[in-house]
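Example record used in the benchmark description.
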Amino acid sequence: MGKVIYGMHTSIDGYIEDSGGGFGFLTPAEDVHQAANDQIRRASALLFGRRLYEMMEEPWTQQLGKEGAPAVEREFAELYKETPRYVFSDTLQSVPEGVTLVRREDAVPTVTRLKQEVDGNLEIGGPELAASMVDLIDEFWVYAFPVMIGGGKPFLPVGKELPLRLVEHRSFASGTMFLRYVRA
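Model output (structure tokens):
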């Protein structure tokens, strides 16, 4: 059975974007990027909301083999392109080969089915998508960057309390903290 994991990079005060929609404060140092490579290497599928998909797809599929890119980024691009990707959207009309387009109304049934059919991690990206299926999420992974931004888009816009238990933590030389939680 698969495990659904929601993970994002955040400021230490819990935001994935600043109030202007920017996320430049979340540029990972090489050690954090390598951890992301290790994470995607264990992923059986990547599950994206439309906005995160659009942010990730073009840079990482075109980064593949790009001359001059750091080795850690080239490795991530190769792993990204090899991993099955699902995008949940009602506005996209088509996606490239290797990506499955799913209507938002079918998100919960699709992820429920994948969770039963897949052995491995199903990695959700995007706070609205994660909030829409929060009851299916097994683990929450936070990469907390050493910056406070005071407002913006929160890690998970859920209007209810979610008791969690910390099961792993790691600090990086760059000051970023990795926190892995399961439901309490």
